[in-house]
Known about the structure:
- It is built from eleven helices and no strands.
- The chain is mainly alpha-helical.
- Helix 1 crosses helix 2, helix 3 runs parallel beside helix 6 and helix 5 (132-152) packs antiparallel against helix 10.
- It is elongated.
Amino acid sequence: MADQPVRPANLTRAGAWLACHGLADVRPTPLLATRLATRRGTRLAADALLAAFIIAVALIHTLNLPADTTVDGSGPYGHGALLVLAAVVAGLVLAQSFLDWWVRRVDRRAATALPRRAALPVRLGWRTVLGGPRALFAVATFAGATALAIRALTVPDPTARYAALVLLIGLCGIAAGMAVQLRHVLTHPVVADDEVSLTADVIMRVEDARYVATPSVVWCLPTVSVFATGLGWWTAAWLAFVALSVIALALITARTARSSTVAQNAMSAR
């Protein structure tokens, strides 16, 4: 894409993006416009992919609910549904890996046009890019959701146990996909040739990490299976869990420095 003409609309969006991040006096370049356009497209594809994943999990759960109390998800009927779900989870991880590969490919092709490659003054670790509070929040969210799912495995209701297995497999897929995406954000090489483009690169990296670490799909998964079990305490626990985690994320966001501030601090570090 680096050797193709850049659409004027993408340059306009790049200029607006720079202005929103305190770089209004910087002229948008084709390099920046290309990278931002690619990220917009892949994020839209990722959102559609996750929506399709939730729908697929809901269909698998609904169409394969135990027909009677003798089915607990451990027989052939339950095994078949869970194997299909595992295949859907593997497909999700592979599709997300492909989107990450596409972003890296575009960045590499765009970088070939640079006369030189700039380097960051310091190595950016996960504490800088994602931040300790957000990382802890992501881990706690998955841990809490997993604990709620495992707790349902101990009840005698086969429908609840089946729903818990569906949740656990879905959570594993989301966690694996998030780990793959965060690894890419933290390790992909810098694409910049001066201080301004280097600052933009850090901003994009921070925004990518924060986007990936938002557990919106974890909040949506309970609607697929939990609310159909009839377990009042489980439904109430999930509702409280989602509400508290949303509030926690809002507080973390309000107290976290903007991505442009993170980038400026990283650029000034020596």
